[in-house]
């Protein structure tokens, strides 16, 4: 019983510290509009080729569905449902000509791991490793992203095969 009480004590301290940390920080406001609490992005994914090939429609009950519009104008989307886990970083000018390198995409699916990271979000891809683009078409009630292109599967330190990816995400707000 004492270990159980100690566990609750440690948990209470951690929760108090995390709660207090969110109240501390710079007082300046971000120029980016906040995403409404409770408003969740939708993400539809189509992968052609390789072990993760398939169609993964948006799931309104996804355990993880987050959109963040950062102060510099970039976007960060995390999504995980019953299919793949997806992280997408879109730089502030990624949909403009000459800025295709402002895109990072990571897909962890049962049949394979795909990533395209020209932005250097985690690690820079060598030139020509993937051919991904993002468009931000006009959308009602939010911001839309359409990512298309090809990238190799990855295992260990090696790339193999090729997949064509079409990802459509909608961040509300």
Describe this structure in words.
With 173 residues, the chain is mainly beta. The protein has one domain. 13% of the residues lie in helices and 43% in strands. The chain has one helix and ten strands; from the N terminus they run αββββββββββ. The protein has one helix at residues 2-23, and strands at 42-48, 54-56, 64-69, 75-80, 85-90, 103-109, 112-117, 131-135, 142-155, 158-172. A five-stranded antiparallel beta sheet has the order 2-1-10-9-8, with no helix packed on it. A five-stranded antiparallel beta sheet has the order 3-4-5-6-7, with no helix packed on it. The model is unreliable at 1-32 (pLDDT under 50).
């Amino acid at each position: 019983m004492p270990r159980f009480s100690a566990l609750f004590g440690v948990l209470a301290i951690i929760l108090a510290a995390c709660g207090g940390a969110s109240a501390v920080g710079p007082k300046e406001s971000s120029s980016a509009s906040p995403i409404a609490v409770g408003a969740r992005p939708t993400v539809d994914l189509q992968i052609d080729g390789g072990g993760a090939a398939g169609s993964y429609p948006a799931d309104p009950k996804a355990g993880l569905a987050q959109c963040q519009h950062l102060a510099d104008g970039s976007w960060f989307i995390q999504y995980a449902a019953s299919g793949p886990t997806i992280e997408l970083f879109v730089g502030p000018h990624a949909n403009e000509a000459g800025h295709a390198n402002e895109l990072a995409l990571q897909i962890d699916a049962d049949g394979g791991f795909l990533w395209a990271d020209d932005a250097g979000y985690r690690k820079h891809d060598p030139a020509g490793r993937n051919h991904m683009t993002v468009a931000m078409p006009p959308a009602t009630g939010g911001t839309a992203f359409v990512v298309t292109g090809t990238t190799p599967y990855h295992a260990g330190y090696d790339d193999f095969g090729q997949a064509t990816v079409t990802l459509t995400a909608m961040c509300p707000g």
